Amino acid sequence: xxxxxxxxxxxxxxxxxxxDAPLVAAKAKPGxxxxxxxxxxxxxxxxxxxxxxxxxxxxxxxxxxxxxxxxILHYKEVGxxxxxxxGPLGNPTRTDGLxxxxxxxxxxxxxxxxPVAKELKEKDARVTGIAGFKNEAQVLLEEEFRECCDxxxxxxxxxxxxxxxxxxxxxxxxxxxxxxxxxxxxxxxVVMMKFVxxxxxxxxxxxxxxxxxxxxxxxxxxxxCRLTLNKDGRREIRFACVDxxxxxxxxxxxxxxxxxxRMYKAFESHAYEETCHxxxxxxx
Amino acid sequence: xxxIEKKFEMPVQSPGERIHNFGEVALGYDEETALLEAxxxxxxxxxxxxxxxxxxxxxxxxxxKIRSKDxxxxxxxxxxxSSLPAVCGRVCPQETQCECKCTMGIKYEPVSIxxxxxxxxxxxxxxxxxxxxxxxxxxxxxxxxxxxxxGLTCAGDLAKKGYSVTIYEALxxxxxxxxxxxxxxxxxxxxxxxxxxxxRELGVDIQTNVIIGRTLLLEELFDMxxxxxxxxxxxxxxxxxxxxxxxxxxVYSANEFLTRSNLMKAYLDYPVTPIMKGGRVAVVGGGNVxxxxxxxxxxxxxxxxYIIYRRSMEELPARREEVEHAKxxxxxxxxxxxxxxxxxxxxxxxxxxxxNGFVRGIKCRRMELGKExxxxxxxxxxxxxxxxxxxxxxxxxxxxxxxxPLIKSTTExxxxxxxxxxxxxxxxxxxxxxVYAGGDVVTGAATVISAMGAGKTAAxxxxxxxxxx
Lengths: 284, 469
Fold this sequence. Notes:
The complex is a heterodimer. By secondary structure, chain A is an alpha/beta fold. Chain A has two domains: 2-89, Elongation Factor Tu (Ef-tu), domain 3 (Beta Barrel), CATH 2.40.30.10; 93-203, Rossmann fold, CATH 3.40.50.80. Chain A has helices spanning 22-27, 68-74, 110-122, 142-148, 168-176, 190-200, 240-243, 254-261, 265-283, and strands spanning 2-11, 14-20, 33-37, 45-53, 58-64, 81-82, 84-89, 100-106, 126-133, 151-156, 163-164, 183-187, 207-210, 226-231, 234-239, 246-248. In chain A, a hairpin with a 2-residue loop joins strand 1 (2-11) and strand 2 (14-20). By secondary structure, chain B is α/β, with parallel strands linked by helices. Chain B has three domains: 15-127, Alpha-helical ferredoxin (Fumarate Reductase Iron-sulfur Protein, Chain B, domain 2); 141-236 and 402-468, 3-Layer(bba) Sandwich (FAD/NAD(P)-binding domain), CATH 3.50.50; 240-399, FAD/NAD(P)-binding domain, CATH 3.50.50.60. Chain B is 35% helix and 17% strand. Chain B has 19 helices and 16 strands. In chain B, the strands form four sheets. Chain B has a five-stranded parallel sheet with strand order 3-2-1-4-16. Chains A and B meet through helix 1, strand 7, strand 14, strand 15 and helix 8 of A and strand 5 and helix 14 of B.
């Protein structure tokens, strides 16, 4: 069993938890993910590592309450335990040798972008951070981001906090001003990563994107997390769990990834509603 | 009593009934039928059946025990060689192993060794709660990676010899392919649990949620005091056909489809893990996994289920019994067909159409059999201009897997072959000292019993190796 050590709300529907998992903490690096089950009989869900405390033996996870499982997880309290917590899975984000990096986070993806930015800072890279959210209510980890970025741009779609617009605006401006990043690392919704890649392309700057497809085992067995890369005109299948989750943005078939992420949308919204009803009944 | 030419039939759930449930299809012999079937064994001198068994069960020995109604004695005979008798009685391809060597089989039908094995194991499991004697510990620690048939067998054999064995399993549940791959209607999970419980009684420690190669590295196991490691981490990445449309929604690998249904129980009425139910399903491939996927799809409510296979019915590699059961249940076989494209739904006028991006059909070309290839089977050759489309809503690809990549990518010095399988010698030893491997991680997708055989061989080699240290 894996105990919840701390729990904190990052905004109205995003929760951060610190989980007691010494074996995972000993190995985990930014960019890797874990798979958890809240209860016996529950669903396996992948979550990217949002922080690691090696001394304490704990791993931070951040999740947006979006489906049935994240909702059940959200109702767990400090001292409760998760029945399964396996990892670290996938490959760490490559940060070695990078001197000047733009780290872009979108929505809850910012929570995963943060440890990458921190690690880059620790390795003395110059870090430009761009964080994008729908609106002020969704903003999270702003202070933490500012602390580890040399330059930081906060964007909201409606301009209710930071500047008005999406993450590609400051990126484009910087690139047009001849900012030569060694690399752009984008973590967030598939659409955001797609547009970051499109904006960066004319400038020829490498883009790494962190893919988070539907997964079951996470160890290279089921093949559910596959995506297609365009490699010099050839289409090749890759598995996010063992080949990723980071991929070269110029190669990823984002349209396919976007489509695949919608496969169980109807099921998920139904399950979410069912769980809502369940919790409202319990509260009554 | 004269010679009875045919095997005694095993009662089964009727096809019309069983396609609506996940209960076991074959119901097993009763005592009377088992005695009659055991009576068919000639107890011949040269015992060819034993050599047909990858773990060399003393088959005539246990059949003689059945004849003398010493059923527990029969169980003991089997368990001297096999640690999973209730499993093997159900899933072994006996027709290509023990039964194909049976002397009776020369003129008549062979003795139904599998059904007898199953009878003995089930009787034991249902009647007997006797705890296995925990063997005296010899003070040596061995780690086993993976809790599938290979790892369980190796762990069981070593534990019986007195070793302290720890099994590391990546998933949340022990059993490997027995729990995520083979469906309930062919191998009830209660049986697997019972077999695993037996190992725990022998003192085997099973640690779930530990991925060797990630959570712990192989070399760390030696630092932790393990003297040898057996890698039975199983088949890994599913193969795809590399044809257009494999990224569409509704296209599954067999591993994913079966894992959702078996491990995550997506077949239940209110599952927590989704799966596409109903519709028209095409399963590509002709092995046992393809049969399992097709019959699972039927039970999930599919209107039509097709098996698409590029050779002819005669070359189908699946167990005969599974093919027969699949046919009875209404699975339609499209032999000599080779998929060239999976087509998707695309309503350009309405981008919000829920069906957009989902499978609409599968385009195949017809094949004919040409000359024999290197495998000795006739090679399928495409017939020009023979393409046709079959309307389907889901496609399950069951054309095999490549060995799991996780351990080899994180272990220096572990030699693998060009297909990614770990290279081992006849005793199961890898290129690293104290590291042994077997099962699908070595061979690529194969059978439960061959994986068990490899686990057994390695257990013996590990015992000898530790003894020499």
